[in-house]
Amino acid sequence: MKSKKILIVALLGILIFGGIKAYAQISENKIVKNDLMTEKIDKQEINDNKEDKNNDVKKIAVKAIKNYLNEEVNKESLEARLIDLENEKAYLIRSDKYLVLLNNDKDKIIHLQRMYEEPKNDDYKNYPYDKAKIVATEFVNKNNIIGEEYTLLIDAGKELNENKDHGAYFFYFQYDGGKQCLITVNKDLKKVEQFILFDETNGSKARM
């Protein structure tokens, strides 16, 4: 009788120990799975947030292209990513035809460009500098990209502007205590194809 009791106790011990071990293994597996699920969810949330931000900046780019260039672009054709500008961050949004650079606060376009296209014929060579200058100045005034007080730097870009074969005229505007903005007027299209705020993009200014 005593030996039977000992055997039963031993069996119970084995069962309990085995049960504890099995439970511990199941719990460990659950923890690993939970950690993996949490990591997966976290990554998904990061990707979702990134996608939301990219959609936001793409919408801003579409609006900017319409406002500044009077051209329509499909949001789906644009790619967006966050880039470094020395100590600053900025959003680069681009397609085969357009480039938009948006500041990190998403409240200011600091570079907008319609990619250069070859002229249809040689008529562009006859487009006069003075007409292009009016186009550039009206663009600055209408869109208020550098404020109301500025100076057109006539000598800046002079060599390029005197080259009739070149497809564009370049106009440098100085504003706000020495900051510079470049406006490019396409000779063939007879309209602005680019503006860039050098001090916002860490670009190279015209030499004075």
Q: Which band does the percent of strand residues land in?
A: 25-35%
Distance between the termini: 110 Å
Number of discrete helical segments: 4
**Overall residue-averaged pLDDT value:** 82
Count of individual domains: 2
The main sheet orders its strands as 1-2-3-4-8-7-6-5
Q: Specify the helix fraction band.
A: 40-55%
Largest sheet: 8 strands, antiparallel
| N-to-C series of helices and strands | HEEEEHEHEEEH
Rg (CA only) = 32 Å
The low-confidence runs, each spanning 5 or more residues with pLDDT under 50, are 1-24
Class derived from helix and strand content: alpha+beta
Number of strands: 8
Q: Indicate the overall shape.
A: globular
At a glance:
The chain has 4 helices and 8 strands. The protein has helices at 2-69, 129-143, 158-161, 198-201; strands at 79-85, 88-94, 98-103, 109-114, 150-153, 168-175, 179-186, 191-197.
Characterization of the model:
The protein is of the alpha+beta class and 208 residues long. It folds into two domains: 1-112, no CATH class; 116-202. It has helices spanning 2-69, 129-143, 158-161, 198-201, and strands spanning 79-85, 88-94, 98-103, 109-114, 150-153, 168-175, 179-186, 191-197. The protein has an eight-stranded antiparallel sheet. Strand 1 (79-85) and strand 2 form a beta hairpin. The longest helix has 68 residues, at 2-69. It is globular, with a radius of gyration of 32 Å.
